[in-house]
Design brief:
Elements (H helix, E strand, L loop, with lengths): L17 E5 L11 H7 L3 E7 L1 H11 L9 E5 L2 H4 L5 H15 L5 E6 L3 H4 L3 H12 L4 E6 L9 H10 L19 E4 L4 H14 L4 E4 L15 E4 L5 H9 L3 E2 L7 H15 L4 H26 L3 E4 L6 H12 L2 E7 L8 H6 L6 E5 L1 H11 L3 E4 L1 H9 L4 E3 L2 H4 L8 H19 L1
Parallel strand pairs: 1-12, 2-3, 2-4, 4-5, 6-7, 6-8, 8-9, 10-11, 10-13, 11-12, 13-14
Amino acid sequence: MNAVIPLKADSGCADAPVLRERGQREVFCGLTGIVWLHRKIQDAFFLVVGSRTCAHLIQSAAGVMIFAEPRFATAILDERDLAGLADANEELDRVVQRLLERRPDIKTLFLVGSCPSEVIKLDLSRAAQRLSRQFLPRVRVLNYSGSGIETTFTQGEDACLASLVPVLGTTPPEGGPERAASSLVVVGTLPDVVEDQLAGLLSRIGVPAAAFLPARHSGRMPVVGPGTRYLLAQPFLGDTARAMEERGAQRIAAPFPIGVEGTTAWLEAAAAAFGISADKVAEVTASARARAEVALARHRQALQGRSIFFFPDSQLELPIARFLSRELGMRLTEVGTPYLHREHLAQELAWLPAGTRLSEGQDVERQLDRCRAARPDITVCGLGLANPLEAEGLTTKWAIELVFSPIHGYEQAADLAELFARPLHRRELLAA
């Protein structure tokens, strides 16, 4: 593996200027987060209050066949609702009653707001409180906004987890005893296989009582209190982090567990918070690091020296750009992100090459002009921009694929690299 460039006090982009743009945006709706959240929390249900467009978006994004029994649905506003001929709250109560009668397995019900004006007028927070009083202790009802008006689509997960935090630990598992606050909570939705890998590493390192938010079942959510430390697994969880700190939890500063370097530093930060040495981390992770470095070597030849341009999309851009630059030798033309949380991304900024152009927010036309002028080897962007750019001869990578794919941890590092090597290989085959 290429040697990692040691950090200097004045290196990286910690104090780099950021181009802030506030123009036309090209992002998915925050409802998209339901696609991975409903798979993670296995006894939760997500009821979107919205239009037929909302229903079509979730159905197509999730790829659920008509005979499946998904854990999401849409309470559609129709003509009677819009004309004021029906009481929206009575209709919502009726829909929830029918849903819970049909699906007794549901333990947590999320009422998810959307962006139609008639939905915005509804007080879903009050509706959730009313329904929770009616159905507790069997079902807890919470609400959050998945509106497309938010900064970007991954904030749907942020809003969902932030709605969970205030009730963590207030209701013990059915028939179970009260539990003490978790020592460490890893915050952010991860695929089960990745969660199991990271949980195993943390346990072998000796980090006590590591729990994950969200858990796979409502009754196993972590208890959060003043003794809790938390570690972010995703960079787009600003509201959730704030809610954790309001419960007394303390954040462990760390880069994100993407790539060999990021995963190692993430684990070292967790270990240090509990007085465990970096030597112990090195001992436990030695074999996983060696496997990942061998696997990455297969892709480094294809990616080293290639240029890449990131349009703002998921807020994963900085950690992924750091990985591609430092571990695979790619050149960063521009790294755009919808929102730059300097505190949470401090380590990532310090590890980016000095002089990297950073942009926050979006003005699509201006960014397209910069991308066309740079002619990068690969462009990371949303689906709406990918096909037009491909038609202009630019190689693209769909940004949303980086959210739907397992990319965290040692075992996934080479898979992440392959997501960028594959479009370049395809372009070469087409040109041959």
